[in-house]
Amino acid sequence: MQPKVDERRQWDRLMAMARIGAIAEDGVNRACLTELDRQARRLLIGWARDIGASISVDAAANLWLRRDGTDPTATPVVTGSHMDTQPNGGRFDGIYGVIAGLEALTALHDAGTTTRRPIEVVAWTNEEGGRFAPGCMGSMAWSGFRRIEEFAEITAPDGTRFADALAVHLAAESDLPHRPLGSEPHAYVEAHIEQGPRLEAENKDIGIVTGIQGSRWFTVTLIGDTAHAGTTPLGLRRDAVQDMVRAITALNALMHDPKDILRFTVGRIVVEPNTSNSVANRASFTIDFRHPDKEVLLARGDAIAGVVQSAVRDAGVTVAETFHALPVEFAPTVINAVERSAADQAYSAMHLPSGAFHDAQFVVPVCPTGMIFVPCRKGISHNPAEYSTPGQLAAGTNVLTQTLADLAA
Ligand code: GLV
Ligand code: MN
Ligand code: MN
């Protein structure tokens, strides 16, 4: 019997997950290490237990579902993604890759298909970085790129320390068996919505992902003096907001790219005291800078601090780098397995790089890694309007299932 992905079951599971943290207009706000995150994980665990998968959790709260293979000495093939969302996120970013992994295991289980290697589905902790920045903490800690302790003092906007949120979470999951951080998979393949417009525009079912562009995140903090907006002469002010505007204007010039390959975003601004009739004594803003070329990523990223320092006139300024992920290329063994799987099932496919970062970026140094993309409507993501059809999602899972079976044979 051939393993058969159940399009309806997968869709219903995605919609059940979307109810956990649902916001207006089909959006989802399910931040990592919250009660909502725990509810979603319990739902996943229940479905995994139904097919006899074993469950475990590591010190970064990455959640692992495992289906054994026939060879107890063989290293596993791993798939998965993340279950946290952006604060104004959609129903598919991340959770699709986790549910698709479970659906693949379920299809193999239902068909009675054995594999030589175990197959594991992982739900990585805090991929988005929306509550605790940066993202990809779970996969960075697992791969040894960063130690989980290094994130301890990072605080959420409500003041919660990462270490405290993690401790509360691990206590709530203390009934689950623990496994050590880190492992040596045979291969890793992650399914995800594309989050860009190319597959839809080119009318392709499947994206065979070739690699991921590099990303660097910075936080710029400007300290001036608060003062009365009606009485303080402009020449006597140290206005943190005016210096922020100067800094961002200079950065826009640094990041100018006529080819529109470079990505530069100021996405979060915090101003204090944040009243209309006080000069701001403090302003901080984030920089999300991405480029597929390592040289450009390093050169322009390294120039950021100097450009900000020169642009600022009155305030004191610090520039802190919070995330640094170099561009990666995926492994031919995984790329070829995905390509074969799509071709065998008569899906149309194209190669493309990823503009978004993913946990897969941090798995690359550990084992052969790749990703499968499915189209999403108008390329919209990090937005409640994010949408892929049940059929598009099932096609990706069909390709994932055969890829996993092939790599685990
Ligand atoms: C992932 O969420 C990204 O911002 O690329
Ligand atoms: Mn994602
Ligand atoms: Mn995302």
Which structural traits does this protein have?
nine-stranded mixed β-sheet; single chain; binds glyoxylic acid; 18 strands; five-stranded antiparallel β-sheet; 409 residues; alpha+beta; 33% helix; binds manganese (II) ion
Describe the fold and architecture.
This protein is α+β, with helices and mostly antiparallel strands. Helix content is 33%, strand content 23%. The protein contains 11 helices and 18 strands. The strands form 4 sheets. Strands 3, 4, 5, 6, 7, 8, 16, 17 and 18 form a 9-stranded mixed β-sheet that branches. Strands 9, 11, 12, 14 and 15 form a 5-stranded antiparallel β-sheet that branches. It has a two-stranded antiparallel ribbon with strand order 1-2. Strand 5 (77-82), helix 3 (95-110) and strand 6 form a beta-alpha-beta unit. Helix 1 packs antiparallel against helix 3 (95-110), helix 1 (7-18) packs across helix 11 and helix 7 (240-254) packs antiparallel against helix 8 (294-311). The radius of gyration is 22 Å and the shape is globular. 48% of the residues are buried. One manganese (II) ion binds at residues 82, 93-94, 127, 192, 358. Glyoxylic acid binds at residues 128, 135, 356-357.
